[in-house]
């Protein structure tokens, strides 16, 4: 590989999905993978094939369908993991097995309960077994950020000799500081005799808010693959953000003197897709993809931008997909325009029934608001995909009374397995009353741990996107609801979460640790 290019390795579908409540269906994962392929992401880590039958099927589906990106499956340094990953990747044009084992003293002693020499032996055996299946093998030193440099040199040299062509140095717990982490990468490349036979990669977590800074420091010191996620999604405080990594390298080409293959015009559409699928709203001031990323409130800034954009903007909003090729649909738009625009956004329908259902929802929305934007379409399809299993609960009607000086009251009718039930309750507000009215019927014994409202577009007729996170005995799900009426959107989100619990669409974290 040329030393003037950084490989972008996206792990939204694996590490990103390990965010509590961020579980995705197979078709949602495939939709995101196709959007990543359009963006020209080099490597897509599609999942952890051994973790569950659902993860296996997702990896297999993506490997069979996505042809322009390398498709990767994570595996522990265990024979059964590696063989399962290889089976899922059989249909890939370009497949990679990513195997890992912990290398820090604390992990080896307390988690693996293995001596260092035994860890090296197991790592070598895993890489060799993976190389028997695929030509492209990546090896990761889990918790490398807290590992001893001498031991890292030993195990990495052995892994490269065994056939690993990519070596990943993860900051698993987000402990590193940029200057120190960059020096670690430089030292490893200089000290390991066969380092020239592998690409060095980094996978940084954001516990101290330094994941992007650590990744970029590593790139400046010789790393040529960065593992990252859309919107910085991931466990705990998340991962390095793909959009920030890519645009930092692109914007500061004078400093980095390297490039990526990424087509940045697909960054914002992919961000919106991931947000709508997971229910994790993007904060307005998020770099690159936040709603305010290119907004200017200060009069001085506005005046400067109007005179010469570069006075206060270091990159173009259009370059990353804001308002690019934007087609506004309305109630007079036909099925073909609807289908075509969704395909441009990365959504496809497996059956005519799915298309018809989504189009009917589109027409219903078009009767409520004058113009329908891409953000609305992402939500429509996300809602359509949520119906892949039989819903136990469906909203029939909702009536809310909220007057100044009086306690709000909600009267709701929901269908439970096809039979209608009515619930009435009061609450501290119309949403609280609605949720309590639902509970008079379902008695779910869940705990509401998150309630979030996000306006999808501007204007008073904007759809409100509501995310509801429920915890039921440790099972965590995110329900998503959207409507021009925020109270109805809230009820939809609550029922969606209950349906996910009923269908057991939850993420059980694989592996004894947290992966890389």
TrEMBL record:
Q: Where is this region: Regulatory domain?
A: 394-516
- Entry keyword set: Amino-acid biosynthesis, Branched-chain amino acid biosynthesis, Cytoplasm, Leucine biosynthesis, Manganese, Metal-binding, Transferase
Q: Report the catalytic activity.
A: 3-methyl-2-oxobutanoate + acetyl-CoA + H2O = (2S)-2-isopropylmalate + CoA + H(+)
Q: Does the keyword Nuclease apply?
A: no
Family matches, as Gene3D superfamilies: 1.10.238.260, 3.30.160.270, Aldolase class I
Question: Domain of life of the organism in this record?
Answer: Bacteria
Pathway(s) where this gene product acts = Amino-acid biosynthesis; L-leucine biosynthesis; L-leucine from 3-methyl-2-oxobutanoate: step 1/4
Purpose: Catalyzes the condensation of the acetyl group of acetyl-CoA with 3-methyl-2-oxobutanoate (2-ketoisovalerate) to form 3-carboxy-3-hydroxy-4-methylpentanoate (2-isopropylmalate).
Name the UniProt record assigns to this protein: 2-isopropylmalate synthase
Q: What is the organism field in this record?
A: Litoribacillus peritrichatus
């Amino acid at each position: 590989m040329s030393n003037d290019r950084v490989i972008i390795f996206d792990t939204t579908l694996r590490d990103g999905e390990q965010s509590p409540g961020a579980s995705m269906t197979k078709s949602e994962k495939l939709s995101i993978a196709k959007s990543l392929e359009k963006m020209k992401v080099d490597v897509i880590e599609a999942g952890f094939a051994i973790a569950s039958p659902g993860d296996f099927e997702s990896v297999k589906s993506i490997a069979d369908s996505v042809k322009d990106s390398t498709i990767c499956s994570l595996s522990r340094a265990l024979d059964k993991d590696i063989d399962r990953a290889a089976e899922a990747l059989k249909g890939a044009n370009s497949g990679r097995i990513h195997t890992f084992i912990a290398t820090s003293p604390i992990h080896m002693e307390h988690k693996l309960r293995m001596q260092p020499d035994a860890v090296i032996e197991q790592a070598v055996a895993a890489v060799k077994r993976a190389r028997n299946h695929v030509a492209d093998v990546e090896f990761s030193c889990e918790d490398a950020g807290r590992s001893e440099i001498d031991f890292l040199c030993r195990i990495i040299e052995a892994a490269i000799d065994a056939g690993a062509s990519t070596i990943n140095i993860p900051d698993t717990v987000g402990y590193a500081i940029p200057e120190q982490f960059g020096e670690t990468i430089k030292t490893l490349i200089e000290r390991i005799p066969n380092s020239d036979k592998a690409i060095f990669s980094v996978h940084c977590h954001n516990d101290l808010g330094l994941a992007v800074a650590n990744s970029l420091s590593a790139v400046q010191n010789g790393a040529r693959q960065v593992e990252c996620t859309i919107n910085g999604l991931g466990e705990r405080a998340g991962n390095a953000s793909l959009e920030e990594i890519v645009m930092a390298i692109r914007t500061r080409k004078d400093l980095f003197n390297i490039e990526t293959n990424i087509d940045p015009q697909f960054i914002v559409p992919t961000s919106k897709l991931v947000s709508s699928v997971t229910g994790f709203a993007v904060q307005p001031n998020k770099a690159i993809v936040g709603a305010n990323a290119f907004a200017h409130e200060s009069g001085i800034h506005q005046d400067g931008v109007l005179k010469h954009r570069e006075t206060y903007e270091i990159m173009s909003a259009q370059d990353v997909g804001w308002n690019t090729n934007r087609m506004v649909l309305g109630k007079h738009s036909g099925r073909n325009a609807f289908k075509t625009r969704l395909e441009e956004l990365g959504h496809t329908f497996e059956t005519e029934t799915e298309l018809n259902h989504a189009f009917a929802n589109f027409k219903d929305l078009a009767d409520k608001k004058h113009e329908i934007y891409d953000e609305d379409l992402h939500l429509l399809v996300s809602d359509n995909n949520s119906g892949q299993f039989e819903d136990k609960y469906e909203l029939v009607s909702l009536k809310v009374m909220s007057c100044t000086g009086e306690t709000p009251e909600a009267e709701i009718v929901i269908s439970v397995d096809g039979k209608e039930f009515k619930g009435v309750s009061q609450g501290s507000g119309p949403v609280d009353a609605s949720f309590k009215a639902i509970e008079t019927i379902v008695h779910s014994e869940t705990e509401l741990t998150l309630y979030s409202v996000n306006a999808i577009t501007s204007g008073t007729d904007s759809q409100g996107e509501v995310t509801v996170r429920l915890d039921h005995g440790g099972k965590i799900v995110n329900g998503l609801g959207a409507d021009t009426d925020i109270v109805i959107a809230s009820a939809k989100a609550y029922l969606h979460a209950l349906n996910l619990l009923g269908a057991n669409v939850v993420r059980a974290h694989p592996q004894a640790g947290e992966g890389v």
